[in-house]
């Protein structure tokens, strides 16, 4: 008798949860190493925030944003990216799996390949980056004069969820392209990690070419800058309307579509490691 679909999904989810839990316990069992990794991740985040602090402390504003306002942009984008990195950052390992033939083993298992790739590892140290982004976001919300309402809270939650989806889609897009590039991770890192850095800055300071790349093709501007502009009632770049921040779900849907197409294209191109 065939297993009901709902029971099969529950069984698969339990398997993934068990794998991730075992890896989390394995890392946490080495307490000294885990603490050092966590502190190192926090320090990296603090260094990146210090760069923002130095730039905006030297002048009254950049791109129309003060230090207090840019803390919202930095915190929202950094938190969304850190969460996406925690979930999908292991897609960066795809070139290694392709060269080692490990990816061929994934094809033999009765689970989706992308889900196996995302759960192939777990780096709890990345939680440290989440703490930096969350702290910056919290301080930014306290320092800025925000007209709190249900819509304000909804916009913040919408921006965080859509930012997470956009950055996760970036990792999947990069992984799909790795089927063709193999050793081209530096190129894909340019729009994955470069996009993360661009998302922490106001889009009005971007050159026109970057507006096209990070505003349309890889829409990281919708991860933080545009929602914060809507939150603070500030004009968007190139005279765009203030309400554009509410269009983050459209940008997230576009990012997921591009990621899905790249992933399917890459899978169809893959012919095995040849070992």
Summarize the structure.
The chain has 275 residues and is mainly alpha-helical. It contains twelve helices and no strands. It has helices at residues 5-29, 31-57, 67-88, 94-100, 102-108, 113-118, 127-143, 150-181, 185-199, 208-217, 225-231, 248-269.
Structural notes for this entry:
This protein is mainly α and 275 residues long. The protein has one domain (5-271). Helices cover 72% and strands 0% of the residues. The chain has helices at residues 5-29, 31-57, 67-88, 94-100, 102-108, 113-118, 127-143, 150-181, 185-199, 208-217, 225-231, 248-269. Helix 2 (31-57) runs antiparallel to helix 3 and helix 8 packs parallel to helix 12. The radius of gyration is 20 Å and the shape is globular. The model has no long low-confidence stretch (mean pLDDT 83).
């Amino acid at each position: 008798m065939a297993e009901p679909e709902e029971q099969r999904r529950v069984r698969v989810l339990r398997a993934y949860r068990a794998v991730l839990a075992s890896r989390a316990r394995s890392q946490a069992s080495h307490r000294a190493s885990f603490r050092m990794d966590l502190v190192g991740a926090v320090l990296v985040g603090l260094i990146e925030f210090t760069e923002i602090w130095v730039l905006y402390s030297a002048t009254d504003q950049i791109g129309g944003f003060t230090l207090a306002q840019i803390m919202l942009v930095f915190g929202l984008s950094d938190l969304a990216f850190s969460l996406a990195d925690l979930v999908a950052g292991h897609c960066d390992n795809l070139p290694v799996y392709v060269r080692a033939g490990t990816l061929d083993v994934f094809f033999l298992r009765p689970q989706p390949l992308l889900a196996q790739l995302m759960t192939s590892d777990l780096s709890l140290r990345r939680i440290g980056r989440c703490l930096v982004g969350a702290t910056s976001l919290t301080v930014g919300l306290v320092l800025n004069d925000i007209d709190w309402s249900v819509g304000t809270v909804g916009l913040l939650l919408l921006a965080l969820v859509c930012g997470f989806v956009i950055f996760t889609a970036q990792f999947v897009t990069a992984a799909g392209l790795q089927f063709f590039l193999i050793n081209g991770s530096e190129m894909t890192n340019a729009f994955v990690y470069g996009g993360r850095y661009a998302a922490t800055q106001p889009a009005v300071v971007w050159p026109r070419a970057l507006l096209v790349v990070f505003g349309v093709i890889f829409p990281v501007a919708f991860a933080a800058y545009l929602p914060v502009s809507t939150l603070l009632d500030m004009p968007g770049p190139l005279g765009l309307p203030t309400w554009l921040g509410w269009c983050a779900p459209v940008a997230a849907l576009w990012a997921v579509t591009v990621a899905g197409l790249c992933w399917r294209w890459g899978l169809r191109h893959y012919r095995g490691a040849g070992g």
